[in-house]
Write a structure and sequence with these properties.
Elements lengths: L2 E4 L1 H8 L11 E4 L3 H6 L6 E2 L5 H13 L2 H24 L8 E4 L5 H13 L3 E4 L2 H18 L3 E5 L6 H10 L3 E3 L1 H5 L17 H13 L7 E4 L4 E2 L2 E2 L2 H8 L2 E6 L2 H11 L1 H5 L1 H7 L4 H4 L1 H12 L3 H24 L7 E4 L5 H13 L1
Parallel strand pairs: 1-5, 2-3, 2-4, 4-5, 6-8, 6-11, 7-8, 11-12
Antiparallel strand pairs: 9-10
Helix pairs in contact: 1-6, 3-4, 6-9, 6-10, 7-17, 11-16, 13-15
């Protein structure tokens, strides 16, 4: 039998080697239930529940109402049956040199059972001591030094100026990019939710950030958008937001007419569903007042969405944006100004090339 318990820190260090390559893990297996896995999991891991969602509830209830011994007996039978299914489905074709990393929540009972069987088969198995809980604790501690070692280049600019589009163009040109809004599934404003695309959990967002940061080359700059401390419902770790805000700034400028057109393109789901747009504006009543919001909603009903968007830019977003930038970004006063002629991909691609060539 070959089961090697390691600390979360040791597991993370070995995870720096791409999975499947020499010295790296062949697979990362999460033995928790489907719901636990969905909330957050190690990057690249697959879910092989030792107890599924329903079974975990049954065993938990039995543990409380009858007792630990009866729960353990019942649980052992379910775990054994599930492990047998996983072996038949996933393991039969694996070569002898297959080396998985296995973990569960904390105690190691669910992952330990799976690791024991795999080890008895003859595979070299690694087990995370303390499970996911220990890994998350180590991950939280790892984010500050990862963020601080990088050279940040911040794309600033008012709402609708094309910051996200420029960021994508920079990435297409080979630049290192941290897309906070992409990882958060949100466009970072009161109206920034994306229909049909729920945000990840805070824990999963943290894991996605750690996974992105650990792969960055510290010898090259990292481009990122100027953001507030929250992207939708998700908080950016304090160490990361402070590191970003100390970076060199670029100020992207685009005409109001082009900004309106850009937002109508990027938020086309509001154009297609005016009622949805109107309902979302209710969130601005505490800030702008009922009378102003109702006037915007009436304009939406009269097919004047472009006028509403322009008002939102000039009356709501722009004043708070400029105040926030002066308050939070230490190099905004010396920012290099980027004048975009228009919102097109071609224009922003040329701008990205100029930035990387300077």
């Amino acid at each position: 039998m070959s089961v090697n318990p390691v600390s979360a820190k040791e597991a993370m260090e070995r995870m720096s080697i791409p999975m499947g390559q020499s010295g790296g893990y062949s697979a990362i297996i999460d033995a928790r239930s489907e719901d636990e896995y969905a909330l957050d999991h190690l990057p690249g891991s697959v879910n092989w529940p030792s107890l599924n969602n329903e079974e975990r509830i049954v065993i938990g209830t039995l543990y409380k109402q009858v007792g630990p011994f009866e729960a353990k007996k019942k649980g052992a039978g379910l775990v054994a049956a599930n492990i047998a299914k996983h072996i038949q489905k996933h393991v039969i074709e694996m070569p002898k040199d297959w080396q998985p990393l296995v973990y569960c929540w904390r105690g190691g009972k669910r992952s330990g059972s799976l690791a024991l069987i795999l080890g008895q088969i003859g595979f070299k198995v690694t087990l995370i001591e303390g499970g996911y809980k220990a890994f998350r604790s180590e991950l939280i501690n790892a984010i500050p030094p990862l963020a601080e070692r990088l050279r940040w280049r911040v794309i600033c600019g008012p709402t609708g100026s094309g910051k996200t589009r420029l960021l994508h163009c920079l990435k297409a040109q080979g630049a290192q990019v941290l897309d906070l809004e992409g990882l958060a599934n949100h466009r970072s404003s009161v109206l920034g939710f994306i229909p049909g695309e729920p945000q990840p959990s805070q824990k999963n967002f943290d894991t996605l950030l750690w996974d992105a940061l650990r792969q960055m080359d510290s010898s090259k700059p990292v481009y990122v958008e100027s953001e507030s401390r929250k992207v939708g419902n998700l908080a950016i770790p304090e160490s990361l937001i402070l590191a970003i805000r100390s970076g060199k700034c670029y100020q992207l400028e685009l005409s109001d007419e082009e900004r309106v057109k850009l937002l109508l393109e990027d938020y086309d789901f509001f154009v297609k569903d005016p009622e949805l747009f109107s309902r979302r504006l209710d969130a601005l009543v505490p800030i702008r007042g009922k009378q102003v919001v109702e006037a915007w909603q009436n304009q939406i009903q009269n097919d004047q969405i472009d006028l509403v968007v322009k008002d939102l830019l000039t009356l709501h977003y722009d004043p708070s944006y400029f105040a926030s930038m002066k308050r939070n970004f230490e190099h905004i006063q010396s920012a290099q100004t980027l004048h975009a002629k228009n919102r097109t991909h071609e224009c922003l691609t040329l701008m990205a090339q100029e930035i990387l060539g300077s």
